[in-house]
Amino acid sequence: MLPKAENQWTWEEAAHLLNRAGFGGSPREIEHLHAMGRHKAVEFLLDPTESIDFLPAPEWTTPEQRMEAARARFAAIRDSRSAMKGMSEEEIDRKRREIQQKFQQTERRQGLEAQGWWLDRMFRTQAPLREKMTLFWHDHFATSMQKVKEPSLLFGQNAIFRKHALGNFKKLTHAVAKDPAMMLYLDLQSSKKGKPNENFAREVMELFTLGQGNYTEEDIRQAARAFTGYDINRFQGTVTHNKRTWDEGEKTFLGQKGNFDGDGIIDVIFQQPQAASYLSMKLWEYFAFENPPQAAVEDLAKTLRDAKFEVSAVLREIFLSKEFYSEDCMANQIKSPVQFFIQMLKQLEVPSLPKAYSLYVQSQLGQILFAPPNVAGWDWGKAWINTNTLLTRYQISGFLCKATTDSEAARNMGNVQGFGNGMQRMAEMTWKGPDYDALVPRPARDKVETMVDSLIQRLFQRKLSGNVRESFIAYASEKKGVVFTNQEVAELLHLMMSTPHYQLT
Question: Based on the structure, what is the number of domains in the chain?
Answer without folding.
Answer: 2
